[in-house]
Each structure stands twice: as structure tokens, then as C-alpha cells.
Amino acid sequence: MLPWKRALRPLAALLLTAAVAVVPAATARASDAPGSGWNDYTCKPSAAHPRPVVLVHGTLGNSVDNWLGLAPYLKTRGYCVYSLDYGQLPGVPLFHGLGPIDKSAGQLAVFVDKVLAATGAARADLVGHSQGGMMPRYYLKFLGGAAKVNALVGIAPDNHGTDLDGLTRLLPYFPGAEDLLKATTPGLADQITGSSFLTELNAGGDTVPGVRYTVIATRYDEVVTPWRTQYLSGSGVRNVLLQDLCPLDLSEHLAIGLFDRIAFHEVANALDPAHATATTCASAGS
């Protein structure tokens, strides 16, 4: 692949994310209404699925468009499912997850409390895509979330940051670019490998006691790179590579979170490990 084409891959992924967010937004809101989809605050967790599931979107995503695939998948399997918007910037509709990530974690804390109060559950499970799989770790580690969360499932999470296929290493060659990024979209700056936010988040270990962690990664991820940096270390961690489950699965960063049912099957296993079934290529039809 020509170097300039390789450099454009992360940019293309971000633009595709934006397109996904815009196109269905006008029609997707109906699925967010109580009783017709997820975010139904009358839902009561069952004995089979006693914890509500909170979905945490990725950068440039929102509470609906990021979950048009996974939310119905979990809802039809009997889960009470909820999703939030976080990291909003003034005057920027639909494209969220751009604000300071520590502040976004505070928004998650408030939302989880709301869900627990409505459902009567003692703890919730969290499932996040991209930034949404990493950001909750700040909530768990610094904002008291560990006492309220049973499991965190990260789909292509940037747990140790991203270098965007090496593009972030070019920032020092453009005077003022890094400062501009921090000032205008701090949520993006926080996700760059080696940022002060990530240094604080990962100091002293990746995990906290009492929470189960699952990471589902794809070797074709072109946004969170290198893809192995998505993995966590520590007790209660299960790191999964999508292609170990199905070598034929070519999903990249967006597809694994938006519509990959093989990944969805593994999410369901992580939420209910006592009744887990083998995830294979055949899970695409489950």
C-alpha cells in the first residue's frame, strides 16, 4: 500500500463514523422512546439477567446511532438496555465524545446512578465501543464506579491510546497543532498515546478489584493502533481477538462495534459467562 493511502485510512474511518452518525439520526430517535426500544425506564431486570446494561458510545458517536445493532440484539435477549450521550461540545450536535474524558466519566457516573435507581439493581454492566470502552475505566478507578459495576466489556477500546497508524507522531512537526487539538477537541487529545490523561488512568495498573473486564479487538483496526494496545493486564481480564473466534471476520474499527454479530455474541458471553456458548463464524447468524 502506498504511504499516503495508509495515512488516509484513519481519516477515512473518522469520516465514515460521522456519516453513520448523521444518516440514521432522523429516524433512529423513535427507537429510543420508552417501551419501543432501549432506554425504557419501566424495564425491570429479570432473574436470568439481573443487571441493566449501559452502552457507552465512541468518539464522534451518540447514544442512538452507535447502538442500532447491539442494543436490539441485547434487548431481544431479555436485557434492560440503556445508552447515554457524553462528551458534548457546545454547538456540535450528534458528534459526541469530544469533551475532556474525565468530565465524560462524570457524566457516566450520573447516568449509571439514574439507571440503578430506575431498575432497582445494585450493579450494572457496561459495554463500550472505542473511547466508550476505555472511558469507563476512569469512572471505575477514580469516581467510585467499581462498587456499582459488575463487568466492563470494551469493543475495540483505546485502553492505552492510539497513534493512528503513526500519524500522531507528526504533531510535533506542526507548531501549535497539539495545543489546538487540546483546546478544541480535548477528548481527542486525551486519546493520543502518552497523553497525561492516559498516563494517569493506567498508573498503578489497568484494573480495579471486583470488576470483570473483557476486551474484544480486531487485528484490522485502523483507528486504535497498534491493536494489541487495546488489551488490558490484571486480574479478572479476558482479552479476545475477533479473528481467533472467526478467521474469516474482516471487521475493522467501526464494523466490530456497529454490526458485527460475531462480536455481539462474544459481548453476550461476557455479560452472562455462566451460560456462554462458543463464538464461531456461525455466530454471525445467531
UniProtKB/TrEMBL annotation:
Entry's transmembrane regions: none
Signal sequence residues: 1-25
Protein name from the UniProt record: Lipase
Keywords, comma-separated and alphabetical: Signal
Species: Streptomyces canarius
